[in-house]
Amino acid sequence: MSHALPASRRTVLTGAAALAAAGYVATPADAAPGLAAKPRGDNHVRLTVLGTTDLHGNVLNWDYFKDAEFTNAAGDDIGLAKARTLIEAVREKRRGQGPVITLDAGDTLQGTPLAYYYARIEKISRDVVHPMAAAMNLVGYDAAALGNHEFNYGIDTLRTFESQLDFPLLGANVVDPVTQRPVFAPYVIKTVATGTGRRLRVGILGLTNPGVAIWDKANVEGRMEFPGLVEQARKFVPEMRRKGCDVVIVSAHSGADTSSSYGDALPYPENASSLLAQQVPGIDAILVGHAHKEIAQRYVENERTGQQVLLCEPLYWGMRVAVMDLELRLVRDRDGRAKRWKLLGARSQTLNSNTVDADEEVVAAVVEAHQTVRDYVNSVVGTSVERLPAARGVVEDVPIIDFVQYVQADAVKRGLTGADAALPVLSIAAPFSRSAVFPAGEITVRDVAGLYVFDNTLLGVRITGAQLRDYLEFSARYFQQLAAGDTTASVAELTNAVTATAPGGTPDYNFDSVFGLDEPLTYDIDVAAAPGSRIRDLAYGGVPVADAQEFVLAVNNYRQSGGGGFPAVSTAPVVVNGQQEIRQLLIDWVIANETIDPALFASVDWRLVSGDQPVTITD
Q1: Has residue 415 got a pLDDT over 80?
Q2: What angle do helix axes 399-415 and 582-593 make, rounded to 10 degrees?
Q3: Residue 22's pLDDT band (cuts 50, 70, 90)
């Protein structure tokens, strides 16, 4: 296999040319009041804050699941190597014009086979540096907030990663359960030269998502707690101001809009950056993360001070770099002596990574790791007797999803003991990737990894028949409602229904089907019925499921911890929890069995109906 990196699609650009190509605007028409084209005189300074977020293990513009250069319909490019080109260009542009701070808003340690390999296969250690740490050190960050995915591989791996960084990981709302004091640095204060003879003290507060307590419960329970962002900011922003901070910037791994992907599982909102700006005085700007949205510039008025607080969120995976400009003026007392810096205005924009080439130093730092991971994901682990696509798994019971169900259920059954070992075993699975496919013939690690793209672990919980029905009814909210009598619809007309907790449409990963291991679990989903009354003819082994009947349900840790807000499973008794990673279970099963044959595990056990008629999918 060739180890050559992909030839760039673009011309190398640096400096002013790179910024122009990336969409940089020196003085936009909608600049905030008081923000001039350039700092005005010796009493003014412009602080530039550069930012990335949700890098998710992407260093190069590479899709390891496809083993090809990354591409999407929007023409975006990804990776920290390209982001660094933009960051260096802004630093060059700002040279002599004011200080520059560089931040990240979290979720760096998980998301690609590159990240996974160095957390699980060749584990990072004193002698093995994580590629993300090497790349981020070259960028020269001043600080980074902890993201919720930083905790996926356990505290020990996170602490090792932290030790490899040249900058602090901040988490003001990651606290010790006993003392309630932060177990990571809550903030850092940078004293920077301004060129005016007076230095500027920049406070950087880091906050993460309280959902860590749910999503990584197995890793953090009893060791760390995650209070709300607003609550902790109210403690630390005044402290930072008392310590002489002229400016306070928050790096928040929490979206700008107060929605939640798991409902009301916690007392704290998942996406709270706007609330921070609105409710906590003393914050000047927020680098937003977590939501995977692009917010080039937004202002939120603080309800106590009336200050217009700047929010900016660059697009994920290194697709964009945030540029926030804050202009300050030195306020003097009556005797003419310099007293303090006052914020005059702030504005922001995002720069597009698809306009520049990758930074050569970053590429060189990770090229060996990149090659190692390419070899790993392209290694053949078995064969499939036929082509098994996942594309229609959102509307049909397809064999490739049954494969996930079968492996999960089998692993849970083997882990049962005592009276639970006699219970029927079921499994849940969602169609994570419509593009996943097992080709006929050789199957590689990346084929399997492309089917199961999350680093979830497997658990077994005990549920009743009534809870099973409730679970399926909740899952069936994923489907849009057909008019009575309609029996044909397209995939788009059926899926991703808008709900109160999913205003942008229910994601595919929140549609679970349920599978029976030793006997089929069969049911119809009536998409002409209202949500909550859609499950028809629920039976196990051909016998209607009774409310009091007991089952063991194989679930992933995200679901069992409350992810998606599904009923019952987060409070049901846990009967198996071997901390086995589901993706690795799938890979290990293929290695052990060598052949994937749908005849072993596949059957059509659920279907979409309209009334008593099957639904015909038109595409």
Answers
A1: yes
A2: 100
A3: low
In a domain, 2, yes or no: no
Beta bridge partners of 172: none
Shared domain check, 337 and 294: yes
Q: Rounded CA gap, 295 and 52, in Å? A: 12
Here the tokens at position 54 are 């949700």
pLDDT over 80 (residue 343): yes
Q: What tens digit of pLDDT does each residue of 231-247 get?
A: 999 999 999 999 999 99
Q: Are 268 and 227 in contact (CB under 8 A)?
A: yes
Nearest CA to 344 among 25, 26, 30, 36?
36
Listed residues 357, 374, 391: the one ending a domain: 374
Q: What is the pLDDT of residues 390-405, one digit of tens each?
A: 999 999 999 999 999 9
pLDDT interval class at 260 (50, 70, 90): low
- Strand segments (E) across 88-198: 100-104, 143-145, 169-170, 187-192
Is the pLDDT at 9 greater than 90? The verdict is: no
Q: Are residues 123 and 182 in the same domain?
A: yes
- Cβ neighbors of 333 (< 8 A, separation 6 or more) are 339
The alpha carbons of the chain give a radius of gyration, in whole angstroms, of: 26
- Is 5 contained in some domain? no
Q: With contact defined as beta carbons under 8 Å apart, do 262 and 214 qualify?
A: yes
Q: Does 559 reside within a domain?
A: yes
Checking if the pLDDT of 265 tops 80, the result is no
Neighbouring residues of 193: CB distance < 8 A, sequence distance ≥ 6: 99, 199, 200
325 and 393 in a single domain? The answer is no
- In the sheet that holds 550-556, the strands lie side by side as 513-516, 425-429, 550-556, 457-464, 574-581
Query: Of 305, 340, 374, which residue constitutes the final position of a domain?
Result: 374
Average pLDDT, the chain: 91
User: In this predicted model, what pLDDT tens digit does every residue of 508-544 receive, in sequence order?
Assistant: 999 999 999 999 999 999 999 999 999 999 999 999 9
Please indicate, yes or no, whether residues 310 and 442 belong to a single structural domain of this protein.
no
Q: How far apart are CA 326 and CA 247, in angstroms?
A: 9
Cβ atoms of 328 and 44 closer than 8 Å: yes
Beta bridge partners of 51: 103, 322
> Strand, helix or coil at 39?
coil
Q: How many domains does the chain have?
A: 2
Cβ proximity of 109 and 158 under 8 Å: yes
Taking only the tens place, the pLDDT of each residue in 61-99 is 999 988 999 999 999 999 999 999 999 999 999 998 899
Q: Could you write out the DSSP letters of every residue in 339-395?
A: EEEEEEEEEEEEEEGGGSPPPHHHHHHHHHHHHHHHHHHT-EEEEESS-EE-TTTTT
Range of the domain at 593: 379-617
Q: How many helices (H) and strands (E) does the chain have?
A: 17, 31
CA distance 3 to 541: 51
In CATH, what number is assigned to the domain containing residue 409?
Answer: 3.90.780.10
451/226 Cα distance (integer angstroms): 31
Closest CA to 187 of 199, 171, 166: 171
Report pLDDT digits (tens) over 137-191.
999 999 999 999 999 999 999 999 999 999 999 999 999 999 999 999 999 999 9
pTM, rounded to two decimals: 0.81
Residues 52/104, Cβ–Cβ less than 8 Å: yes
